[in-house]
Amino acid sequence: MEQEPHPGQAGGACTPCLRRAAGPRPFDEGPAQLEHVRIRGKDTTPEKRVRTLLHRLGYRFRLHVLVALSASPGERVRVRCRIPRSVSVDIILPKYKTAIFVHGCFWHRHRRCKNCTTPTHRRAWWLKKLEGNAVRDKLHQRALRKLGWRTIVVWE
Fold this sequence. Notes:
156 residues
């Protein structure tokens, strides 16, 4: 008996089904995958501590807000450029127009810090990635300051 094709697929399986049939990718299992699962982008321990302190001091804030940097909300630019269209901010104090970034020392290259190390395996790739993160952070902070926002960086 012939297997029926997926809905919307003419004569075959869809791409995700083909990937599953091909087996696991090299990093789907093992210590590398487990290590990457533990890395969090939101609600990290340092971020929770900053939020607790702000709340105890009586500040009201919003979390993980996407701040638009374009001139008008409906504007769409087709040209790919280095200027960001929006910035995701960890904590915002809207009343004071203040953006707070909680950065990890490793990922955001906190200078002169013992946690700002570079892995020895694939060193060139890591340097490019981590330095790119630091450059992007500066670009985002500069763009927010141009819009009249205060920016604060809290290091891990």
